[in-house]
Amino acid sequence: MKKLLLILLALSMIMSLAVTSFADDEGDPEAGDPTYNDTIKAGASKTNIIHHASGYEYEFDDDTNSMETLKSEVKNNHSYGKTVYYALLDKDGYIVNKSEAGEKISIKAEWELGGEFVESLSIVRKKTERDVFGYFLAIKLKSGLNTDTNEVVGTVTLRKNSGDYKFEKVNGKREVKVDVEFDVRYGIARQAEGGKYAYNYIQDATYLHKFNKAEDPLECEFIFEDWEDATFTVKVKDQDPLLIKVTDDFNEDIAATYDLCNLDFFNGNGATFNHRGTLFLPSEYGRFVYERSGTTLKPVPNVVYDEKDEGFYIQTRKLGNFVISDRDIDIYSEVGRITIYGDNSDYED
Fold it and tell me: What does pLDDT average to over the chain?
């Protein structure tokens, strides 16, 4: 009886291992499954006839200049203004790369939800993680100051009826259907890990900053990714969520107009707080600060330069656009007076 029990136990363990093995191999690219969605198979297509699209989504990485699959924690979540890509594959799961194969493809979308957030659809050729160029369906999302999370759900139909690389017929039609389903929203700074992505750290990309009414201090000091030593101090109690972005991108149009000046640019996205705060912009003594609207500069009212702190203090509710110049620009206004803290003197901007 014991021997029989031991035999049954051994058989049970073997079957368990077999099930685990099958589960691990299911959809594994190493197992040769063309429906595996996590990555594009190494190598280019031999047939170059589009058969289906990857179920996994891609975004273009500017640093590597190539397409990259999204990590599991951000899969199916895309920011407003981004482009979502689906790889176009042959029947064996290899990406289609021949130029004629990606041309003269008609695109039609039927949206169940969120079609109003889609700006355009196109077929594009991009470099993949495997260092192979191939074709992708590109879904460009509209940008904007939308703080909500919205669903985009629908079907995109691709058709290619002629040429050497026309689609195979499916139910009498030469078409490939791509099921689309993802959320569109801005990343939430507060939820990301690490001090760099804390809610008071303002990056050069748009993030949604949420302010917890129960935990946040009455006053918060924001710091900036692109402007080291700059700060913005403001009351955030009962503050609604805000989309915030600040860059130091150089403005060629302004620079061309004032070509004798050395200029630094503080480019905010116009995020407006409930309360007036204090923006500190570090700068050498003797420089001048202006507010920018498009390509127009104007003096900043009630700006104070602190010699000890070596920077300008500006009272504002809005993270707008400012320009610091090493030369006085010919803009005259009664509001354009800079008070220099420490010697009680002032000079006209």
Answer: 79
Is residue 5 in a domain? no
Strand 201-202 with 219-224, pairing: parallel
- Hey, which bits of 70-200 come out as E strands? 77-78, 83-89, 106-113, 118-127, 133-141, 150-159, 175-184
Q: Are 109 and 137 in contact (CB under 8 A)?
A: no
Please write the tens of the pLDDT for every residue from 154-176.
Answer: 999 999 999 999 999 988 999 99
Mark which of 118, 153, 184 sits at the end of a domain.
Answer: 184
Q: Are residues 329 and 212 in the same domain?
A: yes
Residue 121 lies in a domain: yes
Structure-token match 């685990």, residue found: 20
State the Rg of the chain over Cα: 28
- Would residue 24 count as lying in a domain? no
Full residue range of the structural domain in which residue 111 is found: 36-184
Q: Name beta bridge partners: 181.
A: 153
Amino acid at 151: E
Report yes or no on 2 lying in a domain: no
pLDDT of residue 275: 92
- Read off the pTM: 0.61
Count of structural domains within the chain: 2
Half-sphere exposure (Cβ direction) of 66: Cα atoms closer than 13 Å: 12
pLDDT digits (tens, 9 = 90+) for 262-308: 999 999 999 999 999 999 999 999 999 999 998 889 999 889 999 99
